[in-house]
Structures are given as structure tokens and as C-alpha cells.
């Protein structure tokens, strides 16, 4: 996930180890407040902690609070958190989801504003929700935690902008399930699909993997029609939205899924996806941009606001 990589690079030079002078932990520099918000630190203990611990402003006391395993929730500890990149990544995702949800609730964010959402999440990660709201709604560029809000907004926006779903999927155009079997399989495995593209229908796995690469939660399913319950329905698709088609029959279970690229001169919908017709040819099983009759469209879906 590009945003995670950008934040961990800025926060701790890409390392999951150690803590800073204020007692913030690991790759994403998690403090007591964020760890309590995401369920790692006991809320009832955090609520009665000293104000400087809540604010993360007293380095030694803050670190001692986090090093006390009695303050962690069941199944969590200072040692396990520091020893596991996976746990730290999960912490970041939980915090990012909370921050983005708050951004939507407070009227700052709207569906489909990927760069703004990522920028808001980045600012809130460093400086908190209220500062992020002040920056995006009122232009108040606060300096806190060693950086201005504008810097982190730019980090978030740039991370998403450089790895949008169309750009990611386009890297694989022209790859075939036999000739490029291993490359496709490795890519889809990142999203949790252990499959052989030459044996298993993989359009949904490819779509899920592209979304995963961009930090967007997919459906986690091989059924293309699972995307009909994903994200938000739209009748005016934008570049990169999901398109779900019926295959076999409209009332059946089979389908096809890919990313919206527009419409051709004949009014057909253009889809960038996997397990499609080869570019300029008639054979399927490629990553390509292909056209489909609009009467086969079951729905267009815009990505959800949550990160993975």
C-alpha cells in the first residue's frame, strides 16, 4: 500500500524498530492516544492517564506508559507490537480507517476523492483529526510533530496519485495467463489469492489485487458479482470505477469485473481488466482493455472510503 510506505518512510525512515524521544513507537510512530483509539491500549487506563501521556508530550512518562504491559489490551503487549511489522501495519490501517470515517462524518471528505482522503488521513495520523479538519476546511496550516499539515497532506496525496488503480492495472496489459503465469500469480497472491491463472477464473482476483496495491479493500472473493455489494453504486462511472458484467445469463451467478476506462464510439463500455480478450485479437485470458455491450452491465461501483 503506497500510503503506508510513504508514512513509514517519513515517520521512521522505513523501519519498524525503535521509538522517538517522545516515546512514539515503531514504523508509524504510534502514541498512546492512537493505540487506545485502535484497541491496543486499554481505553479505561488511557482515560485516567496523565494529560501529558494523553498528549504524548512527556517522552519518558509516555514511553514508560507504553512499556507497561498492564496497559495493553488482552493479547497485545509492548513486546509483541514492537516485534511485528504485521501488527504495526494493522495498527496503521485501523487508524487510517478511523480517521477517514471521521473525515466523512465531519463533511470534509466525499466519495471518490482519493488524493484528498489520503492527504486527510496523513495529516490526522500526525496531528490528529481536529487539525486535519482545520487544514482542509479552513486552511489552517499547523506545525506539529516536526512538520506542517501541508507537508503531510502532500505526502498522502502524492502516494495515491502515483499509484492509482488504472496506473497499477495498466502495468500488466499484454500479460497472458500461460506465458506470464508466475508474474500474475505472484501479484494476485499479495491480495490473498493462491491460484494458478491458467486453471482458475481470475478477473475478480486481479481486480482485488489492483485495489489491494492501492490500499483499497476489495471483496476478497473470486466471484465477480461479489463487487455488486462493494463500494457505492453509481450511474455516472468515472475512470477507475468498478464495472460488473453478467456472463452466461443476467440471472445466473457468473460474471466479469474490471475497471472503467470509458465508452467507445459505438457506445460499448471499455474495461481494463484480467482474463479478457487480447489486445487486437480474439483470444481471452489476457490483461487488456476490452469493449463490452452496455446491456451486459449489472452495475458500476465507486471505491469505498476505507483503506485495507
From TrEMBL:
PROSITE patterns: CHAP. InterPro entries: CHAP_dom, CHP02594, Papain-like_cys_pep_sf. Residues 178-302 form the Peptidase C51 domain. It holds the Pfam family CHAP. It comes from the Bacteria. This is TIGR02594 family protein. It comes from Candidatus Thiothrix anitrata.
Amino acid at each position: 500500500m503506497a500510503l503506508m510506505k510513504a508514512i513509514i518512510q517519513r515517520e521512521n525512515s522505513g523501519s519498524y524498530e525503535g521509538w522517538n524521544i517522545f516515546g512514539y513507537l515503531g514504523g508509524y510512530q504510534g502514541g498512546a492516544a492512537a493505540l487506545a483509539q485502535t484497541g491496543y491500549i486499554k481505553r479505561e487506563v488511557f482515560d485516567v492517564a496523565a494529560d501529558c501521556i494523553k498528549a504524548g508530550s512527556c517522552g519518558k512518562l509516555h514511553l514508560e506508559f507504553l512499556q507497561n504491559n498492564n496497559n495493553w489490551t488482552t493479547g497485545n503487549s509492548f513486546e509483541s507490537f514492537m516485534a511485528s511489522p504485521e501488527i504495526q501495519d494493522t495498527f496503521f490501517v485501523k487508524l487510517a480507517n478511523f480517521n477517514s470515517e471521521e473525515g466523512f462524518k465531519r463533511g470534509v471528505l466525499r466519495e471518490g476523492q482519493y488524493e484528498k482522503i489520503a492527504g486527510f488521513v496523513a495529516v490526522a495520523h500526525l496531528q490528529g483529526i481536529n487539525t486535519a479538519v482545520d487544514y482542509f476546511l479552513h486552511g489552517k496550516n499547523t506545525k506539529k510533530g516536526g512538520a506542517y499539515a501541508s507537508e503531510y497532506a502532500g505526502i498522502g496525496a502524492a502516494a495515491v496519485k502515483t499509484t492509482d488503480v488504472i496506473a497499477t492495472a495498466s502495468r500488466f496489459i499484454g500479460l497472458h495467463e500461460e506465458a506470464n503465469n508466475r508474474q500474475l500469480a505472484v501479484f494476485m497472491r499479495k491480495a490473498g489469492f493462491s491460484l494458478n491463472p491458467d486453471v482458475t477464473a481470475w478477473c475478480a482476483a486481479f481486480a482485488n489485487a489492483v485495489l489491494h496495491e492501492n490500499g483499497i479493500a476489495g471483496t476478497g472473493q473470486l466471484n465477480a458479482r461479489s463487487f455488486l455489494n462493494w463500494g457505492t453504486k453509481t450511474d455516472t462511472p468515472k475512470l477507475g470505477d468498478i464495472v460488473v458484467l453478467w456472463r452466461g445469463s443476467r440471472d445466473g451467478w457468473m460474471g466479469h469485473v474490471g475497471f472503467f476506462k470509458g465508452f467507445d464510439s459505438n457506445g460499448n463500455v471499455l474495461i481494463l481488466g484480467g482474463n479478457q480478450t487480447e489486445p487486437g485479437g480474439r483470444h481471452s485470458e489476457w490483461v487488456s482493455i476490452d469493449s463490452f455491450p452496455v446491456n451486459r452491465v449489472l452495475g458500476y461501483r465507486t471505491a469505498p472510503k476505507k483503506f485495507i
